[in-house]
Amino acid sequence: MNDTSGPPIAIDSELYPALIQCFFIIGAGYVAGQLNLLTNTHSTGLSRYISNFALPAVVFKNLVDVQFQRVSWQFIVSVFIAKSIVFVLTAILTGIAERPRNFASIGLYAIMSSQSNDFALMLPIIDAVYKQSHPDYGRYIYLIAPISLVILNPIGFLLIEIQKRLDDQKKHPNISLWHRCQLIRKVFHNISRNPIVICTLLGIIFNRIFHQHLPNILENILTPIAQSFSSTALFYLGLTMAGKLRRLHTRLVITVFVISMIKLIIFPLILREAVFLLIKSTNGTLNNTIDYSNFGFLYGTAPTAPSVIFYVPESNPALRAIASTGLIVSTLLAGPIMVVSAKMINLRTLDIKLKQSYESTLVKTSYDVSIISLFCTVVVLIGFGLRRRLLKISPIHKYTFIFTGLQLIHAIWTIAVQYITLPISIKASIIVDLGSVLTALITRAWAASISIALMISICYSYERARQYFWLYHLFGWLAPILTTVMIYLQSKVDRSKGEPTLDTEKFGTIQIISSICLLSSCVILISTNLLRIARRTYRLKQNARENRCASLITNEIRPLINDSNEYDESQTTIESVSIGI
Fold it and tell me: Per CATH, is 12-348 categorized as 1.20.1530.20?
């Protein structure tokens, strides 16, 4: 195992080109789909080439060359445990939140939260990050992928097929018992025909036969096919995104967002902890454990695999919309998360002597993220101006504009701090540091305030949302201001005990604790409000559908000529005539 006590190596020259290359090819596929340059037949042919030729060639070629005696099987077990936990957790949460209960949704959401885009997107990123320090880490992808394909995904397929059988049973109650027993056989039959599963088994077998080295004849045949996989798969990923953004609605977006957060945030954290539990230190140092935990965290940030779209039956358009939208949202959110994770993984040491390198990387990363944030907020503000959202009375637009403005101020403040010439006075330093803390906390608090306003507007009424305007401002302004004041006052006490470990945390431990507490509160508030909005939206949609069906039934039952009404009208006419006489 390589020693990780040396200084961090620069990966910007490898990481950013790899990310730009991946997302540029995805964008090219999206543009091709939007302009209808490729038909559905072309898209189907491209998909079959990827799944039946290119990807199996990649898997087989690399598994034959893997040196299994150097593989850390504890890490493979850690990935399996983490994926299983996320799979079961997502299934349980879906079963609790989904009404009416739908086994197809449970199976699909569990697959979406556990299956990663391993080969097309994650493999180039891992090669860029670990090209110099751990070039063997890329081979783990070929051993990790079968965990989902062979073990976890069949459970999801089984749940999807169960729901399909239940729907068929409602339409055709006289289904034979033998037809129901074919369910498990069909699932395992589909697994045994999967080209990736077949090539995984063949790769392990021929690894022994060829003594961990692919013959030149086979290598010359498989290499061009394998090399075509990455760009083709990324292009197809962008192609599948085309036209999906028009189908978004509130419940779908919230569902997809929650699944993406489980996949991109909760799964990496669980995987990192699983690695720490299973992989023990070697030679009295934690370098081996830390390297694998960082690698596991980076792998966990991979977005959902494009193949989830094909797992949903064509007879269920709602789930197909969720799968395709989840693919888009997960891929877009994964970009910045992977950048930050890769930057942090580059700090492969905990030696306090190298804290300057650690801090400089943190500052540079925050600077890069602030530039991206500045660009995005300017685009949002331009959209507000062009669509004249500022002139509308809706409180949601007002609070969204406030939040966007605060995010803009936070980005400008973070960028401007990097250009302050040192040294500066103590008072000026305190003002700059307090400003950085305050702007960061205010943006988090106002995100929660917007979720509260949105929940009250949808679940109750716009009038009540306007009545509680003081609540949004109270939490959005007062909570971060009080937290900042408490950090400043408590830090004056802590500074008498000693200097903080890092200059980026000048207010000591109280800054970390307070920031985490406020952030956790905001995340809980936002998640709770989004779940309430999703359930309320779904209930309103169901009520509207039931009312529509009831009105259609009423119209069908009502006769074309109502004799009683004619009789009443004739009686009224006779009475009026007699009175007139």
Answer: yes
Confidence bin at 242 (pLDDT 50/70/90): confident
Chain position carrying tokens 């059988």: 165
393's tokens: 């009375």
pLDDT at 472 over 80: yes
| 121: nearest Cα among 310, 294, 305, 266 | 305
CA distance 542 to 150: 37
Residue 351 φ then ψ, to 5°: -70, 125
Counting every residue written for the chain, the total comes to 581
d(CA 548, CA 450): 33
With a CB cutoff of 8 Å and minimum separation 6, the contacts of 248 are 325
Specify the pLDDT at position 566: 43
Could you tell me which residues come within 8 angstroms of residue 80 by beta carbon, excluding any fewer than 6 positions away?
147, 151
> At 17, phi and psi to the nearest 5?
-60, -35
Each residue's pLDDT tens digit, 358-376 = 677 777 778 888 888 898 8
Mean pLDDT, range 377-403, rounded to an integer: 77
Range list for CATH 1.20.1530.20 in the chain: 12-348
Question: Quick check: 218 pLDDT over 80?
Answer: yes
DSSP-assigned letters across all residues of 212-272: T---HHHHHHHHHHHHTHHHHHHHHHHHHHTT-GGG--HHHHHHHHHHHHIIIIIHHHHHH
Distance, CA of 358 to CA of 352 (rounded, Å): 9
User: 226: which 2 tokens?
Assistant: 């394998």
Both structure tokens of 201: 């088994």
